[in-house]
Amino acid sequence: MKWTPELYFERLGFEHELINRRVAWLLTSQTILLSAFALVLKTENVSAGAPQPMHDLRDFLKVMATVGAVTASLILVGIVAAVVAKYSVWRDYQSFDQKAQWGARTWITVVALLPEIALPTAFIVAWVWAYQHYTQQHFPFWYGLPPALGLVALGVGFTCASRRKRKKDKHEHDA
Question: Other C-beta atoms within 10 Å of 113: how many?
Fold first, then answer.
């Protein structure tokens, strides 16, 4: 691929737009789920001071908290994938311009991406807390296994791709 500064910033912009969409999906889904959860909590039988919530409502709270945590986890995997893609575009562009910064400035880009990773993480923590607090049961953390495996797969794929790219660059440089 023939790199130009215009193509580089276009690709970075595309990847950032994907992150933006995922954050919008996160906020939309979590708003709907939190609203439904709060509506159930508002009922007299489930309020924090009531003796025991009705069995059906407790099951509904479990489902809502689980769906909220799993949704936030999957969106977190998508955001991390987009961050890895942005980083990969930058690394690829460095073959054209070795002094190129990641985004505006590398350190600013890293700091700017922190909220996009912290936001779904905060929702995950809030849902786990709500599950445990309002159902008096421990959250089944094995529900988080698919997103965790997704993050591991991304890490392994990213490492393999980076090594392959370095070998290819070294081979082209030596030739």
Answer: 20
Q: pTM higher than 0.85 for the full model?
A: no
Q: Are 65 and 132 in contact (CB under 8 A)?
A: no
Residue 28 has pLDDT above 90, yes or no: yes
pLDDT (average), residues 145-149: 63
Polymer length of the chain: 175
The answer for residues whose C-beta is within 8 angstroms of residue 132's C-beta and 6 or more apart is 138, 139
Backbone angles phi, psi at 105, to 5 degrees: -145, 140
DSSP 8-class letter at 1: -
Alpha helix (H) ranges present in the chain? Answer: 5-42, 55-93, 106-135, 145-174
Range of the domain at 59: 5-174
Q: CA 24, CA 85: separation in Å to the nearest integer?
A: 19
Count of domains forming the chain: 1
CA–CA dist 111, 63 (Å, integer): 34
CB 18 within 8 A of CB 10: no
pLDDT tens string 48-94: 555 554 566 778 888 888 899 889 988 988 888 888 888 888 888 88
The C-alpha atoms of residue 158 and residue 148 are separated, in whole angstroms, by: 15
